[in-house]
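> example.struct
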């Protein structure tokens, strides 16, 4: 299949989006007549893509007359935006959904809705249908733009609505979004994944890779800047396979040229698609952070092959070496899976060795979680959970030592950092550098949203201490 055909734009038509706007108006009439001051509680589980989805869900709900609350007792609609990446996330959702029985008993006229990656799995939707009768509306990842119609049907038909179509996925432009405040924002540039790593459910629940046009992305970027957002993360399940008429490296250069003072970050990058062209764009674009999140998952070539990752440890280390050659100040983060089926302690020690070679700023570490419907689900997995936990503790000890050393090396250095939010400590601010390091420094909340010069005074395991300088 050609690259152009593989990435053909499955765009939702203008007619369909106008149809949904008509449903939004009709739904607003019902909602505002039924509830004196309608409020929605939207709770998001999982990754940044889910956060971005939730902002668009809230945008549509606002058009339908809803305000927002964080309190269950104030809500006329409760919506959980769910995650399916790990078993723990699913268990949390199921526990929270079960607890909503009491809410529904007190408020039978209120709406309980579930969406997101968990709901895109048929076996989960079937479980909700059978065992959680208090849930009124369930919809998958491919029909988020149809929320006005789905909610209208829920309110008028007096029966439960389930919408989980089997689809390769679509792109729906023009959905309004509600920013939750602060200076950080999430900007999707593509959706879906074609990699089919053997442990991962994402391609099954998010569909095939499909890229937004540069024009649509740029328009959203400018809108975000107009709302005061200064730290923007470009999102995609495999962001550097972007193919919206240009490469991801070219897209970075286009966005970097937009007027304004802001930073660009991106995640998640697949090592097999991390090119020298991309690294050169990172080096050349002054607004793009000097940080690369490059998930390696494992340091054993045997396990990487079993994971269907399409690179070797040597190839990965070559990418790291090239990035450091072009950007000596770059910092790295990564994802690590401990205890993949068939992994031995010798395989695990190769992962520890890789961590010691790369010297990551931080890691997102997980003990392997079996996902229904993935190839790894049926692979032999003889290592006990207890033993995997011992491996994890060993790995974290190594990583914590490296993180402490990296922080200590920053003492006395000066950086430009964005003041993001108040610290939990009075009179202090949290800031973030272009290398994605979190910094705490004394400062006024009037500085939030501004780029300031800082000098690092000390370093802890996961955070730098600094002072703001002229």
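> example.seq
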């Amino acid at each position: 299949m050609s690259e152009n055909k593989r990435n053909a734009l499955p765009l939702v038509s203008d007619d369909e989006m106008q149809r949904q706007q008509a449903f939004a108006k009709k739904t607003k009439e019902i909602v505002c007549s039924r509830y004196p001051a309608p409020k929605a509680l939207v709770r998001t589980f999982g990754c940044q893509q889910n956060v971005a989805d939730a902002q668009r869900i809230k945008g549509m709900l606002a058009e339908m007359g809803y305000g927002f609350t964080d309190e269950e007792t104030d809500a006329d609609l409760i919506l959980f935006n769910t995650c399916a990446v790990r078993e723990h996330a699913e268990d949390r959702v199921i526990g929270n959904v079960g607890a909503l029985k009491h809410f529904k008993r007190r408020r039978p006229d209120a709406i309980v809705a579930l969406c997101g990656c968990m709901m895109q799995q048929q076996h989960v939707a079937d479980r909700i249908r059978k065992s959680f009768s208090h849930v009124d509306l369930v919809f998958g990842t491919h029909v988020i733009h149809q929320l006005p119609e789905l909610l209208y049907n829920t309110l008028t038909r007096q029966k439960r609505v389930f919408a989980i179509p089997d689809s390769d996925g679509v792109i729906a432009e023009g959905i309004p979004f509600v920013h939750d405040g602060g200076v950080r924002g999430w900007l999707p540039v593509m959706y879906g994944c074609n990699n089919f790593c053997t442990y991962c459910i994402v391609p099954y629940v998010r569909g095939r890779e499909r890229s937004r046009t540069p024009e649509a992305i740029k328009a959203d970027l400018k809108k975000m800047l107009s709302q005061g957002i200064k730290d923007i993360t470009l999102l995609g399940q495999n962001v550097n396979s972007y193919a919206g008429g240009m490469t991801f490296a070219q897209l970075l250069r286009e966005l970097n040229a937009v007027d304004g003072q802001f930073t660009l970050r991106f995640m998640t990058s697949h090592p097999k698609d991390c090119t020298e062209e991309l690294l050169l764009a990172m080096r050349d674009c002054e607004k793009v952070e000097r940080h690369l999140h490059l998930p390696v998952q494992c340091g054993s070539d045997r396990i990487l092959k079993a994971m269907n990752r399409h690179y070797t440890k040597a190839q990965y280390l070559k990418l790291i070496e090239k990035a450091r050659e072009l950007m000596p100040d770059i910092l790295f983060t990564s994802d690590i899976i401990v205890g993949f089926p068939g992994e031995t302690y010798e395989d695990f020690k190769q992962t520890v060795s890789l961590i010691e070679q790369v010297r990551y700023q931080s890691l997102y570490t997980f003990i392997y979680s079996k996902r229904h419907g993935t190839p790894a689900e049926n692979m032999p997995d003889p290592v006990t959970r207890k033993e995997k936990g011992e491996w994890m503790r060993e790995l974290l000890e190594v990583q914590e030592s490296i993180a402490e050393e990296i922080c200590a090396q920053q003492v006395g250095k000066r950086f430009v950092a964005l003041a993001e939010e108040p610290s939990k400590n009075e009179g202090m601010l949290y800031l973030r550098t272009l290398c994605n390091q979190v910094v705490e420094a004394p400062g006024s909340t009037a500085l939030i949203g501004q780029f300031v010069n800082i000098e690092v005074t000390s370093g802890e395991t996961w955070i730098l201490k600094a002072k703001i300088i002229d």
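> remarks
The longest helix spans residues 385-409.
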